[in-house]
Amino acid sequence: MQHESPVKRRVSRQIKVGSVLVGGDAPISVQSMTNTETCDVAATVEQIRRLEAVGADIVRVSVPSMEAAEAFGEIRKQVGIALVADIHFDYKIALRVADLGVDCLRINPGNIGREDRVKAVVDAARHNGIPIRIGVNAGSLEKDLQKKYGEPTPAALVESALRHVEHLDRLDFQDFKVSVKASDVFMAVDAYRLLAKQIEQPLHLGITEAGGLRSGTVKSAVGLGMLLAEGIGDTIRISLAADPVEEIRVGFDILKSLRLRSRGINFIACPSCSRQNFDVVKTMNELEARLDDVLTPMDVAVIGCVVNGPGEAKEADIGLTGGTPNNLIYQDGKPDQKVDNAELVDRLEKMIRDKVAAKQALDANTIARG
Question: Is residue 149 part of a domain?
Answer without folding.
Answer: yes
